[in-house]
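Weekly structure sync, notes
Attendees: PL (lead), two postdocs, one rotation student
Agenda item 3: pending single-chain targets
PL asked that the sequence for the first pending target be pasted directly into the notes so everyone works from the same version. It is reproduced below exactly as submitted, 639 residues in total.
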Amino acid sequence: MSYTVLARKYRPQKFSEVIGQEHVTRTLQNALEQGRTAHGYIFSGHRGIGKTTVARILAAALNCRSSLKTDDKPVAEPCGVCESCTEIRAGNSVDVIEIDAATNRGIDEIRELREAARYRPARDRFKIYILDEAHQITDAAFNALLKTLEEPPDHIVFMLATTQPEDIPQTIRSRCQHFSFRAVKFDDIVGQLRDLVGREGIRADDDALALLAEAGDGSMRDALSILDQAIACCGGTVTADSVRNLVGAAPAHVLEEVMQAVARGTSEEILRQVDHLISEGHSPTHFARQMVRFLRNATVAQIAGKNSSLLQMSSEERERVARVAELFSEEDLTRHLQIMLRTHSELGYKQEQRFHLELGLLKMAHAQRLLPIEQLLSDAAASANLSSGVGGARTARPAIVGSTSSSAEPRKSEPAARPTFVSPFAADSARKSGPRQDSSGDALPGASRVAAGGSGPARVVMGANALADPEEMPSEALSARAIQQIDSVSLSSTINDAKEIQEPADSVERLRQAVLQALAEGNQRILLSMLEAGEWSVNGNELVIKVAESQTVVDLSLGADGRRLAIASASGVLGKAIKLKIVPGANVAASENRNGGAKPNGTQVASGRSRAENDAVVQRLQEKFGAQIRTVIDYKEKR
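Predicted structure, written out during the meeting:
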């Protein structure tokens, strides 16, 4: 007798033997007891989770002959010993037809099925059609089956099993009861595997069973297939290493060592680990998938703890991900997981997979030096708040992530009580990280992010430059040095910001001369005549000019070329980027010449406009029609 694989040998024959699908089996049993069975069912879900098995059990319950002596109705649980049950289990029942829809997918096969469905069953109560992989049936074939599904004979039951229910037409789905199967839980797979190896007399430790369940990825059939391989490889004892070799997974300690190298920022060690894996024949795609799963588990361990039920793995793996979670913050792990997810997706369609894997791992190492955008915005807010106190004593300094107010002592040269500005990002990071314990029990600051018992790069938040190597100075000296550097950087940046805000009074006049000179050289006469009579001021990095003309006149006068000339000349005078803002309709006092009668090029610029404004005809037109003087051409200056 040929060998029967475990997935077939221990295939469930009753609803009570199906694991992980209680919501389906309970509903079907209640329907059988109440006599409310449907004529069409759709069973959808992940591969290897019991769709076809449940369809066979339902068919056996509908045709079970154990109740013939009582009421001749379907039973809630097949007996498994009558002729109908044994024939259905063997697959040679006349009235239960199982069709592979992947190969019998055309309209001709469905027409034959429809013609055969008209005849009553040979012996049992129902003639049952089980269509496996039903989503591969063509649209024309589905249309041919539609009328039969809508008004079937009383003796016909259709069961469609599929992994892609969205590919089945809506007209078919609306005429059937749809049951969505779930992936089998990790603990359920481990419990079932433990029971089966006990029946088979095989010794397997918990780590090996956990690896089998993890490799199954929610599929009971996949886990049993790998268990068959492990038994054939190891004989009576199944170990975790043998299972790991069978599935082609990299050793668990390699994943931990790679993440430790990422934490230290040692790119050479990362490349050596990848070279070692590739030389042993490991697939870059499979390793990237392992790294994605490992980073996900490390993120969960960082958030919920290593004993969380969200982690479905062995105890040894829990310890590994917990150690890695201590090296990084939640933000770092999230960033690394995103990088590896993108790397894994790229490996599926790009050549030179090794190079892309190395690039993804190096990105994680370089990401340790990046600052989040929230932190940069917090730095900007801190500088803005500090700029108001430049003239007097400094009232705030940036906070260091991981440091607490209780551990920070005032220096002798400063007052004992100093209000400290803490940005929202820094406060949240300090709350999440907190003090950690190393192997000796001493608290480590959250900003250092150094492995327990080891060393790593110290990072100070709030925009400070890189500090000295923590190996060259004690922790107390490191904290004092960090505070001094942060204070010096913050004070210098604050002074610079204040200088940029408080422009000297004479710079406005120089700015006005330069802009008017540029407009005169650019032949912007209309804009020149409007701006030279306005009131000029500088507010930060914004040049504000108040003019008496209306918004319509400003829009007509200020073109793209004129704006470009004004902004370029103003930015050149102040040495920084300047924005131009023209305020129309302002009350600007008219004057003969705001610059002592000197035009930017040495000539008189206001004499022509002054004569025009004082002209009686012009004044009469202004009073009667509300006219405005837009352009003044002084022909006397040209002669």
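Discussion points:
- The chain is about 50% helix and 10% strand.
- The chain has five domains: 6-180, 186-247, 252-367, 373-404+419-501, 505-638.
Action: rotation student to compare against the earlier draft before next sync.
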